[in-house]
Each structure stands twice: as structure tokens, then as C-alpha cells.
Amino acid sequence: MTSGLLKLCLFSILCLSLAASAGSPPRKRAWITIGDAAFRQIKTVAPELTSIESRQVRVEDGSEKVHAVVLDEGKLVTIAAAIHQRMGQCGGFMYHASESEARAALDRRRFVLPARLYGIHRRDVVEPILANMQEKPIESTILALSAFTNRYYASKSGVEASNWLLSAWRELAAGREDISVALVAHKGYPQSSVTLTITGTDLADEYVVVGAHLDSIISFGMSETARAPGADDDASGVASMTEAIRALIDSGYRPRRSIHVIAYAAEEVGLRGSQDIAKQFKQANRKVAGVLQLDMTNYKGAPNDIYLLTDYTNAAQNAFIAELVGAYLPELKLGYDKCGYGCSDHASWDAQGYPVSMPFESSFARDNPTIHTSRDTLANSGGQTAHALKFARLAAAYMVELSF
Ligand code: BES
Ligand code: ZN
Q1: DSSP 138-158
Q2: Atom number of ligand 1 nearest to Cα 91
Q3: Is residue 100 located within the same domain as residue 127?
Q4: Residue 4: inside a domain, yes or no?
Q5: Domains contained in the chain, number
Q6: Of all atoms in ligand 1, which is nearest to the CA of residue 234?
Q7: Hey, which residues are catalytic here?
């Protein structure tokens, strides 16, 4: 479909849904925060949407205007689709259940960790773990997750996928009393996030967090029975993370800090699962050494192997990631790119002031064209998992070095 045609479709869909709501009783309200570029796109089709507050927020290499907007909850899916399809780069948004939460989200706090955390100290542990990592287990996780009809945050198969991952992680942790696997329930929708925690041997209250999102979506016609395999977005991230954990457990390694792995629910509808969890960490005053987000790891669309996002991420930790690549994966070529406001779960941690990085599979100009469609399958990511294995190895090196 040409981009002109696509725009026309989106205009009609959005206009129809707006017209349908005229005159009907008031629906449930929702709030989002959204970057200026995406907001302007939305305004062209839904001019009645106004920003209740705008703020210029600082990002690593400049600043961006962000708006808090109130809208009808029923419009969220259409708006998410419109933003995603119409933006040259990916421009997301963050969902908020109240006006005060939305306004609070415009505040960016900074949390700086001592640089001495970063460094290459555990070659003895990392190298054998990386050598033991394989494509096969990544492939089976991607195939298992993408076999669910969809993993939508509000659907039955979305709940089943979350339960499936719980069992798979429990199997990995079997026989280890220092490892716990749990569901994190969220308010307002049935899909739970899944967590695996390896309790640290002597800095147990400090966490190294690695996450990926469990849910999937299609932009048009989402329903209980709609096919949304989400093999790349983001079964691949969950699979890379799972292989890192498998190899780490297999090696018998006991971290000094706690390692906390999370498969988030409800990313595709405004980063809802990860916002809940990052806020809980903040409220409990938990110390976080660092957060790594893996969202899309198996489609190699561009010449470099790994693209580090430079916006809404932590520059010092990004430099450490580059150092890890140099030390443990020297054959890989590193690039840099930006993703815009609220594009994945890293933004939820960044919003709470925690240092977060997101290594991405491609440049945004050459991103996977099948995501958010029924064609996001393993076959359409090249039918193999060599690319996702690079991210799995990076995640394993990150977990070991930062937990030491
Ligand atoms: N994995 C995507 C982010 C992404 C999209 C990366 C396109 C590269 C290219 C993520 O799951 C997603 O779809 N995010 C939404 C925002 C979300 C808050 C609805 C997006 O970018 O539209
Ligand atoms: Zn995603």
C-alpha cells in the first residue's frame, strides 16, 4: 500500500470512529502523554484533542515537547495505529489512568549512579556462558509464543501466553532456591507480567533488570480471534532474554546483586505493564543498578548489528553497553538511532529516573515492515535466530558484569 493510500485509510478510520461517538453518552476517559510530532499527526485527524499541559523535556542530545492529552479510552487503539503508521520514526505514547498521573509524567527526574559500577571484570564467567548460548532455544521460544492466536493484553490467548511463559521460566529455575518466578497482576486488564528473580548473594536489595514485552497487537481489526503472532515484536526479545537466563542458570553462576527479568504485559497499549512495575520499584525505593530493554531482536534490516537508542536512555550506561560489545562481541558493528517519545518499555524506567538502555535490531529507517500485522512471523524475520542470539549474548554479559 502506498503511504498516501495508507494515510487516507487512517483518516477514514479515525473520522468514522469519531463520528460514531458523536451524541453518545460520555465514555471512560483516559490520559496519554505523547511527543509533539506524534501529537501533530493525531491533531490533523482529531482536531478536538487538545493538550491539557505541555512541557519541553530534556533528552540526552536535545529536547522534545511532550503533551498530556485527555481522550475517550475507546479511541486509544485507533490512535496507536495512526501514530504508528503515520510517523516516519516510531512515535509512541504513555497511558495514564488519571489526570494527575499524566501531569506527573511530564516531570523527568534524574538518577545518577556511580560510574565505577561499569567495567569489564568477569571474563572468566561471561566467556563460557556466551560460548554455551544457542539459536535453537531462541527459535523454540519464538515459535511457542507466536503460536498463540495473539498475545493481546485484553484477550484470553494473551493470558494463556503469560501463563505459558510462567511455566517455561519455572522449568528453567527448577531446583534453585535462590530463584523465584512469579506473575505480576495489573489493574484493569487480565494479562499479567511475568518475572524471574535470582536473589543476589550479598547485594540482594540492588537489582539488575532486563525486560521485553510479552504482548502483541495488530494495527487494524484487533479482536479476541485476530491473528497477531508478534514473532519479532516482541517474542524475539522475550526469547533472547530467556536464552540469556537459561545459559546463566546452566553455568551455576551466583550473582552478587539480584537479577530481575521481566516479560511485560500491555506494552502495545501505552507501556502499561512496565509503567506499573517501574513505579512500584520507585515507590519501594528499590535500588536499580541498570535496566536493559529488548524490544525486537531478530530482524536484521540494516548494515550494523545492534543500534543503541540515544533518546530516553542513559548515556553513561549506553557507553557501558558499547564497552560490553567491544569486549565480548567484537565482531559486531554498533550503530546509534532514536525512537521518539514512549516507543517501548525503556521509557517507563527512564520516566522514574532509572538508567536504561535499549539495543535495537535495525535502524528505524529500515525497520521490520511486518510488525503489528499477521505477517510478523519467524519466517518473515529470515526463518532463523542468529540475530536474536547476538542480543541474548549481550544481555547475558550485561547481567553478569552489572550484578558483580
Ligand atoms: N516494538 C515497537 C517499537 C518499534 C516500532 C520499534 C517500530 C521499531 C519500529 C513497540 O512495541 C511499539 O509498537 N510501540 C508503539 C508505541 C506504543 C506505546 C503503542 C509504537 O511505536 O507505535
Ligand atoms: Zn514491541
Answers
A1: HHHHHHHHHHSS---TTSHHH
A2: 21
A3: no
A4: no
A5: 2
A6: 1
A7: 213, 233, 267-268, 295, 372
Give the tens place of pLDDT for each residue, 382-399: 999 999 999 999 999 999
Q: What is the pTM of this model?
A: 0.90
Q: Are residues 70 and 137 in the same domain?
A: no
Question: Is the separation of the CB atoms in 287 and 36 below 8 Å?
Answer: no
Our answer on whether the CB atom of 228 is closer than 6 Å to any ligand 1 atom is no
Q: Which helix (H) or strand (E) holds 244?
A: helix 236-251
Distance (Å, rounded) from C-alpha 293 to C-alpha 326?
19
Residue pair 359/307 in contact (Cβ under 8 Å)? The answer is yes
Domain containing 348: what range? 123-403
Ligand in nearest proximity to the CA of 266: 1
* 367 CA distance to ligand 2 middle (Å): 12
pLDDT beyond 50 at 4 = no
pLDDT at 164 over 80: yes
Of residues 400 and 80, the one with the higher pLDDT is 400
Which residue has a Cα nearest atom 7 of ligand 1?
90
Q: What is the CA radius of gyration of the chain?
A: 20
Q: Give a yes or no: residue 153 inside a domain.
A: yes
| 100 and 156 together in one domain | no
Q: Give yes or no for residue 233 CB within 6 A of ligand 1.
A: yes
Residue 57 confidence (pLDDT): 82
Preceding peptide of 234 cis, ω within 30°: yes
CB 212 within 8 A of CB 295: yes
Across 34-38, 85-89, 214-218, 278-282, least confident range: 85-89
Flag whether 55 is in a domain. Answer: yes
CATH assignment of the domain containing 98: 3.30.70
Q: What is the CATH number of the domain that holds 286?
A: 3.40.630.10
- The last residue of one of the domains, among 79, 105, 131, is 105
pLDDT at 134 over 90: yes
Ligand 1 neighbour 295 (Cβ under 6 A): yes
The verdict on 131 and 48 lying in the same domain is no
Query: What are the tens digits of pLDDT across the range 219-247?
Result: 988 999 999 999 999 999 999 999 999 99
Instruction: Give the residue from 70, 105, 140 where a domain finishes.
Output: 105
Atom of ligand 1 nearest to the CA of 84: 22
Mutate which of 214, 297, 343, 366 for ligand 1 pocket (most atoms within 8 A of beta carbon):
343
Q: Is residue 339 assigned to a domain?
A: yes
- Determine whether the shortest distance from the Cβ of 235 to ligand 1 is under 6 A: no
